[in-house]
Design goal:
The complex is a heteropentamer, with 2 copies of chain A (about 325 residues), 1 copy of chain B (about 60 residues) and 2 copies of chain C (about 375 residues).
Chain A lengths: L1 E3 L1 H15 L3 E5 L15 H5 L4 E3 L4 H14 L2 E5 L10 H8 L2 H4 L9 E6 L14 H5 L5 E3 L4 H13 L4 E6 L8 E3 L12 E4 L4 E5 L4 H15 L3 E5 L2 E3 L4 H10 L2 E8 L4 H12 L9 E5 L10 H4 L3 H12 L2
Parallel strand pairs in A: 2-3, 2-4, 4-5, 5-7, 6-7, 10-11, 10-13, 13-14
Antiparallel strand pairs in A: 1-8, 6-12, 9-11
Helix pairs in contact in A: 1-7, 3-4, 8-12
Chain B lengths: L9 E2 L1 H10 L14 E2 L1 H10 L9 H6 L1
Helix pairs in contact in B: 1-2
Chain C lengths: L2 E3 L7 E3 L18 H26 L16 H4 L7 E3 L5 H6 L4 H8 L13 E2 L10 H13 L6 E6 L6 H13 L3 E7 L2 E2 L2 E2 H4 L16 E5 L3 H16 L5 E6 L18 H8 L3 H11 L5 H25 L19 H21 L1
Parallel strand pairs in C: 2-9, 3-4, 3-5, 5-6, 6-10, 9-10
Antiparallel strand pairs in C: 7-8
Classes of the chains: A alpha/beta (about 325), B mainly alpha (about 60), C alpha/beta (about 375).
Bound molecules: thiamine diphosphate (2 copies) and magnesium ion (3 copies).
One magnesium ion binds next to strand 7 of chain E.
Chain lengths: ~325, ~60, ~375, ~325, ~375
């Protein structure tokens, strides 16, 4: 056991999987010699050489497209998009091929690739470096969309993603990258993809989130307890798609109230699907409208205004209280 | 009489609205709907038992019944 | 500090061996076993006849939209170089290449008749399925070739695509990645002069497509794509180079789409009949037949014999296909192959469809 | 007034706008000499010449990207993506530039472009030719997403889209292209973008849809009346984003019940947002869970299985009845 | 039917006029008005000093991440050809070009300090704002140039991008569209040898980037990008050609990024100090200064004077910027410019934010 940042934990997952399985290769812009612009792949090229830790030319569609070919060949490519705000350049490769080749070939070929990308705001970055658009991928049949929230679950989920026989988009909350350390066991640990987690028990209201916003959510849950005596139950989705609705619909049957939190723009965002599932599966138990605490439907502003854009603790608290007092 | 149950009652939001309008605690109402659901009728009946003036059924509630 | 020309490592050449009259340039004639020559001829005839048959089936409404290959049969000269472990990465106009590489005719029919099952490619050969988004499959070939190189294999990945595809960004990224990584990939551009209604000259302002290889310091060769000997020779050079670790190559195969773009297209809207006639005279099958007759590898009888044989082969495939489609396709299949394991919400949706179908069944009874 | 197909009505909109305003130009693959693969732009090149009706090389990002430049210059480009299944290749140009240049330049530049694309199934097409992924665009701040359902509203909406000062993605239901004719006035007609329409009044249940599925929806509404004596109210969104929730939330306050219909995959699809808005704005009026009748979360199958994939009349009827009898 | 070389209309040349010691090739020396020469020098010095100042501000935490331009100041030689109505289409490393074209220094600071307001470009000049997604802006230049041609204007659109950008599909599509439509676009690749940690040699397997123009039958020229005279001469040729209706051109400007990629980058991880030192000796400002001193257009005093002047200019801009940022940015602004008119749901969201801010205000009081 060692206390690690998320960056280190992801690096551990990559290192161990590469040690175990020589079909795992890492590729992307600056992932080799430079160790990635966030140092997530630091040291890998030294351990595994430039054929397995591949510095590619600057072309996202190229990176995704060759990853698909590699995966069909039998490798397990883990490609990096330097920021999620640039993975749109590879959108068609994911939608039209990664997601479809198993189906198109009637099961003859598989695409066991992972596309990693740091996402989300909070790091004083330039335009295009703070986006949260996981809904695009979650709406795409044939893909899986995973977002960890802590060093330990990032490591365990990435191991599962690498071993998954289908393509996984893996968004890493860059605001969490170095925000805190957590014990991460040296020994192998996996979390099944498509399974959410109860991270706090409660009976008054259910808070549902994933990724970077888990932290303000947990803070809000503590404050609700402290200040209002309210017991909030908290669900961490971990996988956005395939969405595990068993836990949160169960929880809302108990609490009757739900608050969803994500940085992504609100309209047609991930939260809407959670509302829809709740309406489908917990309808008769809903005591109040389900609140969505999200980014606004505008381009995320440059960093001077980012705090007001983001669904922070205060906004979550306010929404929970409104829901509770409905 | 029904004792207040700890379990939250099952009811559609529209039924909850009716209960709110009548000032009735849904947990006090005996459910008669499918799957133990409280229906608008249950709420009205309960209101009458409580001696409160039942609201005129809304048109959409009429359709639902 | 002058203004001086930069010497580049490659020049662009044009290769042609067999002319429209079936006359061969002896100095360039490739060394192809006689049986292979006849096999190539047979494959081209089969492709032509099958294409013609599909057009009839389409007009009868028995299959849907498809992309005829008439005039582009000499592409088999390129895939003839491939070994079973090699990878074929086709677009949507490589029926001849796919069939050469073991794709069953009934599967071709299934695909165009709207059956997912038509996507199946032979289990023992490395053929990717038909790829429709223009140009995008070229990158898959690079990834496959990377895999080969990584595993120190001797195989190659051969990608096909059209003249239109050279305009897509993915084509550029593929050639660049292939040359940077020096992987065993062979890019074959089927320049059939048209991308639906856009003539080659307006697809790119460049004199040739072959010269695009210069942008990557990659060998680029323009070849008469209706000359199966030249196609073979060009592909052999590229495949040999790739197998020997010499990296990727680009071949512009100059051919012509004699038929419509797809069966939904009317080429009269955008091209002159005279142009088509000019290219009819350059038919790849006729000149190759003349050549083989001249070499005594074919005779009038064997030509007729082959024609009969392929017609029979097509008929049998059609019969198998008809039998395969007698029962309506099972709709439940749409959930197969979505993922290796269906997640719960898809199991729910599958169950929903099952209930709907059962209800319909009950109503029908 | 003349009876027109949707193809003709769109052609009329283009023709009249081009006659009125020489900054309107049309571009795309095969839109010129060939008149478009669906003949939507037929005859335009003859009337307006190849500088205004531009046959482009085969590159979607190129088409979208130069349209952005044209729009910034002051033209009003109407570009065509041959099928919506190929517009993913231009995704980043729309997301990263069309949607942002006004904002990025603080209002100095505008991008008054329209990106047209035929979408949806039902025409026995090949793979990639039947998709319905409007949610991608609807979730993208800075864009508008419009989908007409009939010849007349297609014409009126396209005129508005062309005149709109912001970028509009305009999806045309190819299943409707030639399915029927409708009177379309010769004289100018517009429908404001961002406004939904009540197309049938009723008090028992609200059916909400747009585009191609409006037709099975209206059929289902008739059958509900005929067979069940049920009065269904029907809302045609016309604009998917900015989503006009005023009409349908009002309607559901009356009916208490809603059924949403779209071809797009269900999860994280457009319907989820409608559910979320209903929960936010009509919560206390909901008498039954909101039903989503949608495509399944798989790649839309080739045409032999397409009918069972699609949300047809029967499936809508069944959902409406379940909702009504809840 | 031989194997024969195809003659192509263009060759690739290298142009260099002013060497590292400030010696000029008289035969190539462009005819530039003396006042313009001094203006170019001053702009280069201003860019250098402002860049250095921004690095300090970044290290003090007063601005966020930015992309230093040190070593690439000779780019002003290209924009010097532009008239107000011409279009500048920059990437994110064209501060010198943008400032030449009227961008206020305080706006540069605002942008990197996280203020949306920094995106503002001068109202009276056609400069697009900074574009970050690599290579994608090249297409906008083509669209702008199309507009110019369509309106029969005499303007040009000049796009800047890096060596890394040449790998992106959009770069390829832009060059292809520009040459097919023969629009007045000038593409200037700032080959600064690095794309973050990837050296130019591994960005493309090609000997030069200039040769990529051959793929489009477009004139391509490689120029010493640290030689402002050569940059000017090359750009003049391209701009003149574009204005005269001669279509697009591609210029590879060979320069070097002397500093880090961005302030978040540590170049020691991937490149040797000796390489950097080599390029320090090729500094574009020093050699130009020598040349101007030699021609008597500068003196020791005027050099010092210019240095003082630009420092004062920077200081004043910084003061204006400081004043502009004294009050915190109004968060409500994030809704401005989303659309020309805010749709109802955005008005609701704006109202929500207003309420939140008011509540916070109340709590604070
Ligand atoms: C990315 C993409 N854009 C558009 C289309 C529609 N489309 C299908 S084939 C075709 C023309 C292809 O031309 P070319 O590459 O020359 O191949 P050919 O059809 O001539 O074999 C077009 C535009 C497509 N399939 N994919
Ligand atoms: C599409 C895209 N991918 C990745 C990035 C991240 N990124 C920013 S700059 C850069 C390198 C750019 O290299 P080059 O084009 O040579 O320009 P330079 O930075 O050297 O000026 C990268 C990878 C980006 N901004 N856009
Ligand atoms: Mg073609
Ligand atoms: Mg691209
Ligand atoms: Mg560079």
């Amino acid at each position: 056991m060692a206390k690690m940042t998320m960056v280190q934990a992801i690096n551990l997952a990559l290192t161990q999987e590469m040690e175990k399985d020589d079909s795992v290769v890492v590729l992307g812009e600056d992932v080799g010699v430079d160790g990635g612009v966030f140092r997530v792949t630091d040291g890998l090229i030294g351990k595994f050489g430039p054929e397995r830790v591949i510095d590619t030319p600057l072309a996202e569609s190229g990176i995704a497209g060759i990853s698909i070919g590699m995966a069909v060949y039998g490798l397990k490519p883990v490609c990096e998009m330097q920021f999620s705000g640039f993975d749109y350049l590879a959108f068609h490769q994911l939608e039209s091929h990664a997601a479809r080749l198993r189906w198109r070939s009637q099961g003859r070929f598989r695409v066991p690739m992972v596309m990693r990308a740091p996402y989300g705001g909070g790091v004083r970055a330039l335009e295009h470096h703070s986006e949260s658009r996981e809904a695009y991928w979650a709406h795409t049949p044939g893909l899986k969309m995973v977002i960890p929230s802590s060093p330990r679950n990032a490591r365990a989920l990435l191991v599962s993603a690498i071993r998954d026989p289908d393509p996984v988009v893996f968004y890493e909350p860059k605001a969490v990258y170095r925000a805190f350390r957590e014990e991460v066991p040296e020994a192998e640990e996996t979390i099944p993809i498509g399974r959410s987690q109860l991270v706090r028990e409660g009976r008054d209201v259910t808070l549902i989130s994933y990724g970077a916003t888990m932290h303000p959510v947990l803070e809000a849950a503590s404050l609700l307890k402290e200040r209002d005596g309210v017991e909030a139950e908290v669900v961490d989705l971990l996988t956005v798609s395939p969405l595990d609705d068993s836990l949160f619909t169960q929880s809302v049957k108990k609490t009757g109230r739900a608050v969803l939190v994500h940085e992504a723009p609100r309209s047609f965002g991930p939260g809407a699907e959670i509302v829809a599932r709740l309406v489908e599966k917990s309808f008769l138990y809903l005591e109040a409208p389900i609140a969505r605490v999200t980014g606004f439907d505008v381009i995320i502003p440059l960093y001077q205004r980012e705090r007001e854009y983001m669904p922070g603790t205060e906004r979550i608290l306010r929404a929970a209280r409104e829901t509770l007092s409905f | 009489a029904v004792t207040a149950s700890k379990e939250p009652p099952a009811a559609a939001p529209s039924t909850r609205r009716l209960a709110r309008e009548l000032g009735i605690d849904l947990r006090q109402v005996a459910p008669s709907g499918p799957g133990g659901r409280v229906t608008p009728e249950d709420v009205r009946r309960h209101a009458e038992l409580q001696g409160r003036k039942p609201a005129a059924p809304s048109p959409q509630a009429a359709v639902a019944e | 500090m002058p203004r001086k020309e930069i010497e580049l490592p490659y020049r662009v050449e044009h290769l042609s061996i067999l002319n429209e009259n079936g006359e061969v340039d002896k100095s360039l004639e490739p060394d192809i076993p006689e049986s292979l020559l006849v096999k190539l001829y047979r494959a081209m005839v089969l492709s032509r006849k099958f294409d013609e048959r599909m057009l009839i089936l389409q007009r009868q409404g028995r299959i849907g939209t498809f992309a005829p290959i008439k005039g582009q049969e000499a592409q088999v000269g390129a895939v003839a170089l491939l070994e079973p472990g090699d990878w074929l990465v086709p677009s949507f106009r490589e029926m001849p290449a796919e069939v050469w590489r073991g794709k069953k005719l009934e599967n071709v029919l299934l695909l165009y008749a709207g059956y997912n099952e038509g996507g199946r490619t032979p289990d023992d050969l490395n053929n990717l399925p038909v790829s429709i988004p223009v140009g995008t499959q070229t990158l898959h070939a690079v990834g496959l070739a990377y895999g080969i190189k990584y595993r120190k294999g001797k195989n190659v990945a051969m990608a096909f695509f059209g003249d239109g595809a050279t305009s897509e960004g993915d084509f550029h990224e593929a050639l660049n990645f292939a040359s940077v990584f020096q992987v065993p990939a062979v890019f074959i551009c089927q320049n059939n002069h048209w991308a639906i209604s856009l003539p080659r000259a307006r697809q790119s302002h460049s004199k040739t497509l072959a010269q695009k290889a210069l942008a990557y310091d990659m060998p680029g060769l323009q070849v008469d794509g209706n000359d199966v000997l030249a196609v073979y020779a060009a592909a052999k050079e590229a495949v040999d180079r790739a197998r020997a670790g010499g990296g990727p190559s680009f071949i512009e195969s100059v051919t012509y789409r004699l038929s419509m773009h797809t069966t939904a297209d009317d080429p009269k809207k955008y091209r002159r009949e005279e142009e088509v006639e000019q290219w009819v005279r350059r038919d790849p099958i006729i000149r190759f037949e003349k050549y083989l007759l001249g070499r005594g590898l074919l005779s009038e009888e064997s030509v007729a014999g082959i024609a009969d044989e392929v017609q029979a082969e097509i008929k049998e495939a059609e019969e198998r296909w008809t039998r395969m489609t007698e029962k309506p396709a099972d709709p439940m299949e749409m959930f197969d192959h979505a993922y290796e394991e269906l997640p719960p919400y898809l199991l729910e949706q599958k169950e929903q469809l099952r209930r709907e179908l059962d209800a319909k069944q009950t109503e029908a009874n």
